[in-house]
Amino acid sequence: MEVKSMMNTATTLMIGLVFIMISVVAAEDPYRFFEWHVTYGNISPLGVEQQGILINGKFPGPDIYSVTNDNLIINVFNQLDEPFLISWSGIENLRNSFQDGVYGTTCPIPPGKNYTYALHVKDQIGSFYYFPSLGFHKAAGGFGGIRISTRPLIPVPFPPPADDYTVLIGDWYKTNHKDLRAKLDNGGKLPLPDGILINGRSSGATIITFEPGKTYRLRISNVGLQNSLNFRIQNHAMKLVEVEGRHTLQNVFSSLDVHLGQSYSVLVTADQPAKDYYIVVSSRFTPKVLTTTGVLHYSNYSGPVSGLIQAAPTLLSWSFNQARAIRTNLTANGPRPNPQGSFHYGMINITRTIRLANSAGQIEGKQRYAVNSASFYPADTPLKLADYFKIDGVYEPGSISDTPIKGGLFPATSVMQVDYRAFVEVVFENWEASVQSWHLDGYSFFVVGMELGKWSPASRKAYNLNDAVSRCTVQVYPKSWTAIYISLDNVGMWNLRSESWERQYLGQQLYMRVYTNSTSLRDEYLIPKNALLCGRATGRHTALL
Ligand SMILES: *[C@@H]1O[C@H](CO)[C@@H](O)[C@H](O)[C@H]1NC(C)=O
Ligand SMILES: *[C@@H]1O[C@H](CO)[C@@H](O)[C@H](O)[C@H]1NC(C)=O
Ligand SMILES: *[C@@H]1O[C@H](CO)[C@@H](O)[C@H](O)[C@H]1NC(C)=O
Ligand SMILES: *[C@@H]1O[C@H](CO)[C@@H](O)[C@H](O)[C@H]1NC(C)=O
Ligand SMILES: *[C@@H]1O[C@H](CO)[C@@H](O)[C@H](O)[C@H]1NC(C)=O
């Protein structure tokens, strides 16, 4: 007993030493500090006053500006009447799923309390966003843009734009988030959204001002709840340059499908006669098309916006073609000075294939959604903390199958165990008639294939093993499949979820437990010193850290 506890102390000291060394290394990267106060406030984005969630008084919340490898220290004060968490879509939180801000990894911030996130945007560039992850708060706001710029001296594959705009688009309800949540809790489904917002505003607002002749970057993210959206600007072409941290082949599009949770950077040149132009956003793959417009203003024009509002494409083949045209520029730099094509993902052997099918159904008379028939219910304790403190019985690894199974939906706290450093193929199979959007936290993955119909091993012949785009959120078209490759290089508990907020809330999600038996801090960090503890982890001491 004595000897064992001494050994433990010695191990702890050694771990402590390594931790300090790692901290010193990380300390070379710059720090940026943020203090965020989350409150309710009155907003009326669709002309009707409603209660929104504001960050430092703003709706949408403030943008985070950062540079590759920055440490972002964000102290979030929850001044709402409900537990609250923010999650960071696309921020990989390398070795540190504790900071992910979803209920499977992080205890909610109680009302009146605060929690300081420490994010390290290690080896990342690009356009992302943050959002509130609990309790359907996303329906009330609390989201904002995140941009990670390339470090100075690393060439970017396009000239610096004259200005750079965050454009957050998303469908919206006039209904309070608590009422929407109650509808789902009571077994119902959500109605159609009431409208679409661009940067928190509806039709007619001026979103962007252009000076004639100059070129601008727009970072477009779909932060909505239910609908894929099409984005276009009257008479202006958009040159795609970046998708969720990847520099792309610079294809020109007249409109862009942005599925739930996705982010795109485009360059737009003010090369048209000085006038005001419509920015149009409309829902895709919906029986009833919702549309909103904003205004692109030319600085030397002072008249009304006019002209035709161009319709969105409607053919599924158009969408497939656009998706396949979104590819990596292999010679362009990413976050490092070496070209993005230097990682030859197409030459790595697959160690495991995981097939995931979404479905809808009922459990005990209530609407639910599932992955391989397992409908996710949260546990009483964050899964990551159960792992960390070795609390048994919170979840069962293997509670979800690797392949679609027949039969009805069943409740599960779905956790799929995968090995650290494995290279896996995941096939999303959508047998439903609605478009799906999937997001994986902690990672970006290669989108190797996307086709109409059922997937079979023969489908692999059509995979793009050369210049597929690497991203963190991907669509699966109705009655179609999408295949991705993931290099599992980030230990932790990572949420894989539907970005349809009704679907993820009602069970279409799971956690991937990327596991190693190594306890080295080179593989995974210790729990943060300031971690909030809850559920069965309440009172577990972190004093030795
Ligand atoms: C809450 O904020 C205070 C500073 O106002 C800070 O010292 C403390 O560490 C924060 N708490 C957590 C859990 O991060
Ligand atoms: C706006 O500026 C452009 C470029 O300088 C010029 O060609 C155009 O005539 C101007 N238009 C107006 C309405 O002032
Ligand atoms: C790819 O990036 C390089 C910069 O490294 C650029 O010169 C080239 O035009 C880009 N190619 C395409 C097709 O976008
Ligand atoms: C991949 O698998 C093939 C066949 O099993 C084998 O010949 C090859 O060496 C493997 N490649 C790598 C990089 O491991
Ligand atoms: C981890 O597992 C491997 C293979 O089972 C074993 O060889 C290794 O010693 C284990 N490492 C630790 C740190 O337990």
Structure characterization notes:
The chain is mainly beta. It has three domains: 122 residues, Sandwich (Immunoglobulin-like); 162 residues, Immunoglobulin-like (Sandwich); 195 residues, Cupredoxins -  blue copper proteins (Immunoglobulin-like). It is 10% helix and 37% strand. It is built from five helices and 33 strands. Strand 21 and strand 22 form a beta hairpin. It is globular and about 65 Å long. The N terminus is likely disordered. The chain binds 2-acetamido-2-deoxy-beta-D-glucopyranose (5 copies). One 2-acetamido-2-deoxy-beta-D-glucopyranose binds next to loops.
Short synopsis of the structure:
The protein has about 550 residues and is mainly beta. It is about 10% helix and about 35% strand.
Could you name the CATH homologous superfamily of the largest domain?
Cupredoxins -  blue copper proteins
Beta-strand share of residues: 35-45%
Average pLDDT, rounded to a whole number, is 94
Give me the secondary-structure category.
Answer: mainly beta
Count of alpha/pi helices: 5
Annotated CATH topology of the largest domain: Immunoglobulin-like
Biggest sheet statistics: 7 strands, mixed
Q: Which small-molecule ligands are present, each listed once? A: 2-acetamido-2-deoxy-beta-D-glucopyranose
What is the CATH architecture descriptor of the largest domain?
Answer: Sandwich
User: Low-confidence stretches at least 5 residues in length (pLDDT < 50)?
Assistant: 1-25
Helix content, binned percent? 10-25%
> In CATH's first tier, which class of the largest domain applies?
Mainly Beta
Q: Over the alpha carbons, how many angstroms does the gyration radius reach?
A: 23 Å
The overall number of domains is: 3
Terminal CA distance: 22 Å
DSSP strand tally: 33
Overall shape: it is: globular
